[in-house]
Amino acid sequence: MKPRIDIVNEILEECIVAYPVSSFIISLYKQYQQRGSLSKKQLEGLYSKTAQIENISTSKLATLEALIKKMPTRYKSDISAPATVVEKDRVVGEMITAILEKRPQHKTVLLLKIKYDKNETLTASEIAELKRFVLALK
After folding, report:
1. Interatomic CA distance for residues 77 and 62, integer angstroms
2. How buried is 37 (Cβ within 10 angstroms: 0-12 exposed, 13-18 middle, 19+ buried)?
3. Alpha-carbon span 92 to 112, nearest angstrom
4. Percent helix, strand and coil across the chain, each rounded to 5?
5. CA-to-CA distance for 8 and 84, rounded, in angstroms?
6. Planar angle of CA 57, 21, 10, nearest 5 degrees
7. What is the pLDDT along the chain (138 residues), one digit of tens a residue?
8. What DSSP string describes 86-136?
């Protein structure tokens, strides 16, 4: 089996020789040694530093550029708008309160009160059921 040529490592080593005090290059080199890869942004930064070195092989630069182009570009999504605040229907709240004042253990109404308190929208059938309970209590 042929030994694999590691262009990124070779370029990093040449950059360390050219820029021995560059903290950027040193940190890239350490990260590459630990993880075995660099992100697309890091490779782009490495490419811009490497392009400034005079006696670097153009084939290595081209290989690095090809590696960068081959990597996927990740886009951050825009900040989403906050969820719209659901306004509670006061009439529904009053119906729930009226029913629970007379029948505090009514399980269905207690369940609907929990949904109402969590700002979940009640379905039309649930509201109709509340109206039916109110009429039954009168």
Report:
1. 31
2. exposed
3. 10
4. 65, 0, 35
5. 48
6. 30
7. 656 778 889 999 999 999 888 899 999 999 999 998 889 999 999 999 998 888 888 898 999 999 999 988 877 776 666 655 556 778 888 888 888 888 888 888 888 899 888 888 888 898 889 888 888 887
8. PPP-HHHHHHHHHHHHH-TT-HHHHHHHHHHHTTPPPPHHHHHHHHHHHHH
pTM to 2 decimal places:
0.52
| Residue in the block written with tokens 């697309």 | 40
- Residue 98 is encoded by which pair of tokens? 């009226």
Are the C-beta atoms of 11 and 67 separated by less than 8 Å? Answer: no
Distance from C-alpha of 125 to C-alpha of 109, rounded to nearest angstrom: 13
Residues 6 or more apart whose CB falls under 8 angstroms from that of 126 comprise 112, 115
* Residue recorded with tokens 């609907």: 112
Take residue 120 and report the two structure tokens written for it. Answer: 């979940």
H or E segment to which residue 55 belongs? none
Q: Please give the backbone phi and psi of residue 108, each rounded to the nearest 5 degrees, phi first.
A: -65, -45
